[in-house]
């Protein structure tokens, strides 16, 4: 009810503030007998971790996940998987400069009004640090999907006004993590990287967008009415910090289109029944149809900037927020593994749900 | 688990196929003592009903809702509200022409693959007829919100390439339902209407977008992590038939913006602490901050067109789908009350959830 | 949240008051392709119906169930099954004698305090009439269980001080519904019947107990911690009107026993690994072990008696409740199909849950 | 879905095996601003802990709970409360003697069949060690209830054939924890203690029963149909290891009673409307009526005995289980704080649920 659980069958519940003892979670409903590839899980976590490159914040966190239960001899047992990631140096900092002030476009004001007793240290529960737990669970979900041949490719498609417009089949996704931006096109990645560094130098931040492509999704995932597959994917993306929009298939181009253009006609192929086009984005009536699923997620520029901003104190007095600290200038490079993780959580949950619709 | 329930506290569960005996639902968790304005509920339903104007399908359905329980002396009792809407003429038609064929961009193929035993008459469960039940529940939710002063304004903002770009405060929402398109600007509405009629004459359909504005939403609605207010609004919108995208606040403009532009600075006003701008769209950290909430929902062109299309039969043979029947040429005019209903369901649910976060 | 839904995968949500338009429900999550035996469903309903024999109330209700959705060509489609049972003569009676009075050991007082706006006609939502919806859903659940060979036998084991003490294997369950008491032993049934009639003549009521035996339950149903199979069975039974206690296996004899007596040793048989005794009641660690599951449910005497009783009005004044109307003198004969229905709902839900614990 | 979560609003999710790294849990939905009394929480935990007295197992576990999140300046923040209890010496023991054998009346056989990959060390997830997490959450729930004046008294009412039959008002509950048995009557406690020691000397175990009394429960807790207050209490008790039965109010005496005896007549008192008797056990129609709530929970004798028993190996061969190790001879003394914890969890959950039934 307090919204810290995601999923219906493969369920992740998370806890933790950025400056408490630890963050962590419980994965309940993971099927038994899954061999865990701990290196893969840690690698996904490392992709989200701050301090990886000159593009990201220089805060150092080792982000080592410890599993506490639910695993025996390297395989899942069907019992809940408890895990935690220690917070480091959580006591050292001084937060007096923001303790009583509301940072613009942060959650300080709304948390204060909703809860009253607010952990103001580093954003507390509203910090994106919480997403590390999503990456842990999402990596395990990916391991299940890999067994079913499902492939998820997320990449930075836009930073500011620089956009990668290629078709999916023109891209080499093995290159995505070869650069710091996480864009599979090296030339575009370079431009994006330059823009981020320029914006950073100005003490500013910039928004971006992530594109996701899912290949080999089984036909039949998704429920027909409220839990349409794209509705659950949309909620998953919109639950990530800084996300402002979600579109799948034709998305926000659809309003301008005609039905005769947009309809995906069926044809018989050697590969079974396929559609000639894919404006549907691999989902029809809320249910996957076996074609590529693709969607795009829009992120705002990070709210913490290195400039002074007008604000108001808890007591209602005008004040100023000083720009200081170490923060990313653009959220999307580090958000790629988070988008992938949330995608995997939705797909695995619906994969398991699809197993119970027949006797 | 099968996805026919929406909401956590104010819960709507629906049933019904377009050509079965009836559609209907159960609203569980409606607070006790709410005086029901049956005329208001029916008026909202009538706005969704087919056959209202020359823009919409000429199928006639009276869509009278009957309440079966949960109401005593005109007020809710706290027990579940059962309701139904009879289907008319459900037995008369001939569906042999689509029984074994997959209509492009409809749910025929995915239902066939997911379920096997598919009610092919008029789309069955995938028909937008199901949304009438959402309007019933959403209208009751609106009655609760009205008691809290919350106002919801949805309107057609785009049809094809015609878009209403005015600021909210330049619009007179009392005019929205004065035209058949449901656009508050009469001149733009006329252009949209002309476009729809032109497209219809061509046997084609066209997409559109609906804008929603929520005024006077209490501060503090929404949960911080997975059930962010905008994530639940996004899921609600994406669960409506034909929706392809959702954005709130700065939305898909955010990727191009700088933090220094996008941040909404706080200021002290006679009206309390307010933000100077509202790129956040009234929601920060997933929680309403008291400013206007606004979001935009993109709809694809309706899949049923009056032209012949290539397709494949259940048996895998190439075939053709004939364009016939009475259908809308653009979904957005009739979708306005559905968008409002889903918005109301999300807000009431979070309003009730917010009551339990304090002792 | 308002407690009108039962089950996690095979979910029943019910609505309806005893004197409203209709009662009914939605079954969501029923697997696709189940052939429905409508005669079987109606037969189960008829066993619960009042007016069947001289032992039960002479109120006449036809209790015909109408299915509104989710069924196509006689089989389930995987979409929600909506159903309703009309209430008859719901407007005719005069309730002024109980409108402002709290009947002893009824729910009048607690509903008044909890809700304020109470439908006082015939008990409203607290009436056992609601259980008819459980029987509809439970019958469908039984049809699924029959496909898996699971057999459920419930019978009246006690009325007042008359108790059937035979071993299960000494009983012929085909005889249970051959008498009005629903006890498989004709001689004991006769004594029970005589007692009920005697009590009835005195204007009084008497309690009873129902024993349930489940044969051929698959091994592995039930979840290890909170949703132990017997915990869910216990909740199911305790949710039935008038139930005061639940025990399974050794039950309330267990406190007096020694471990050396109570432990069910394993042995190898031609039939696989079996236990020599079955004090566990077919469930170990919350999970079915393949042995017979058995449990006993205790019912209080019905609160409506044909005698005058002291009470208090809504306004807090001392008053008297007159004994009048047509009511059962003992609840257990009509409760047998309800106990069976709730048992079937729990077992089917866990059967479906068990399908998702493996990849 | 895997059954490791309890509660609807105040939700506890637990993880952990007896011999893994740690056990722990997440409490989601705890209201904000609750001052935590850490000594009280630890004291409750200590009452459950093994090694406290000569009656209980001599295994030493310190059972220190560490809170990881959700608390700021000693008060809850409304965000999830993560906690853990380290397991000690989890690697040292040798389990080869039970690795491939099914201990009678333990969960070895059912876990093996359900999961395949079973953590056989000390019972794994089926170990009662998991209940320590319930005590942590239940203690926090008790702190909330204390603010509302609700008092919970659980005590050992029966061990073997020794039973405490006094009326509640004849007992001094301050004495319950003054003896090792946790029975408020010192003389009866002595007899129980003697019996347990005698049974222990014989290498055997004995069952028992715990009585619970709740005073000052607010009127109106519980939902009318499936989530009746006593149904949720029953499920809570039946989910505790070794429980075989649950009864409330008149319980298993009800079947023998007449309605004229059993009905609790209302009367006007200085204290408002009260019932003259309380066979209802403080709950009518599933909803608390303000009278004392009382119920009784039956426990079987512990399955681990110090005698050799016949069994079967995983491979299906006859074998013998050796009686060894350090175990309790009777579960009820240490189960008292668990019963109280589960009672508190149910009451707080319904207390919070009751806040949303009115607008």
CATH superfamily of chain A: Chorismate synthase AroC
Report mean pLDDT of chain A, rounded to a whole number: 94
The strands making up the biggest β-sheet of chain A line up spatially as: 1-2-3-7-4
In percent, how much strand structure appears in the residues of chain A? 15-25%
Radius of gyration of chain A: 21 Å
Number of discrete domains of chain A: 1
The helix-and-strand class of chain A reads alpha+beta
The CATH topology label of chain A is: Chorismate synthase, AroC fold
Unreliable parts of chain A: none
Largest sheet of chain A: 5 strands, antiparallel
Question: Could you walk me through the main structural features you see in this protein, from its secondary elements to its overall organization?
Answer:
The structure is a homotetramer of 359-residue chains. In chain A, helix 1 crosses helix 4 (131-147), helix 1 packs across helix 8 (332-354) and helix 4 (131-147) crosses helix 8 (332-354). Helix content of chain A is 26%, strand content 22%. The first copy, chain A, has a 5-stranded antiparallel sheet with strand order 1-2-3-7-4, covered by helices on one side. In chain A, strands 9-8-10-16-11 form a 5-stranded antiparallel sheet. The mean pLDDT of chain A is 94. Chain A has 359 residues and is an alpha+beta fold. Chain A is globular and about 65 Å long. Chain A has 8 helices and 18 strands. Chain A has one domain (5-353): Chorismate synthase, AroC fold (4-Layer Sandwich). Chains in contact: A-B, A-C, A-D, B-C, B-D, C-D. Chains C and D meet through strand 1, helix 2, helix 5, strand 11 and helix 6 of C and strand 1, helix 2, helix 5, strand 11 and helix 6 of D. Strand 11 of chain C pairs antiparallel with strand 11 (243-248) of chain D, so a sheet runs across the interface.
């Amino acid at each position: 009810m307090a919204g810290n659980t995601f999923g219906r069958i493969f369920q992740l519940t998370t806890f933790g503030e950025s400056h408490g003892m630890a963050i962590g979670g419980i994965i309940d409903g993971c099927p038994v007998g899954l061999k865990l590839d701990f290196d893969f899980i840690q690698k996904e976590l490392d992709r989200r971790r701050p301090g990886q490159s000159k593009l990201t914040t220089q805060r150092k966190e080792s982000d080592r996940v410890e599993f506490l239960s639910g695993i025996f001899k390297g395989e899942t047992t069907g019992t809940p998987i408890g895990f935690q990631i220690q917070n480091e140096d959580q006591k050292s900092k001084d937060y007096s400069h923001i303790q009583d002030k509301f940072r613009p476009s942060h959650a300080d004001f709304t948390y204060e009004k909703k809860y009253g007793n607010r952990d103001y240290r580093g954003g507390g529960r509203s910090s994106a640090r919480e997403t590390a737990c999503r990456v842990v669970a999402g990596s395990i979900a990916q391991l299940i999907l890999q067994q079913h041949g499902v492939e998820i490719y997320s990449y930075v498609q836009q930073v500011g006004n620089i956009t990668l417009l290629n078709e999916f089949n023109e891209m080499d996704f093995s290159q995505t993590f070869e650069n710091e931006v996480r864009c599979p096109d090296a030339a575009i990645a370079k431009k994006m990287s330059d823009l981020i560094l320029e914006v950073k130098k100005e003490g500013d931040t910039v928004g971006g967008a992530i594109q996701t492509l899912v290949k080999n999704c089984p036909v039949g995932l998704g429920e027909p009415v409220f839990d349409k597959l794209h509705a659950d994917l949309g909620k998953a993306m919109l639950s990530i910090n800084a996300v402002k929009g979600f579109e799948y298939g034709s998305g926000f181009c659809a309003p301008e289109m005609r039905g005769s253009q947009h309809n995906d006609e069926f044809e018989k192929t050697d590969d079974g029944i396929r559609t000639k086009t894919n404006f549907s984005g691999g989902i029809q009536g809320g249910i996957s149809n076996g074609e590529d699923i693709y969607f795009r997620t829009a992120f705002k520029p990070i709210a913490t900037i290195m400039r002074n901003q007008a604000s108001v104190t808890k007591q209602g007095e005008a004040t100023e927020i000083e720009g200081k600290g170490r923060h990313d200038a653009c959220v999307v490079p580090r958000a790629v593994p988070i988008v992938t993780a949330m995608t995997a959580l939705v797909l695995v949950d619906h994969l398991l749900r699809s197993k119970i619709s027949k006797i």
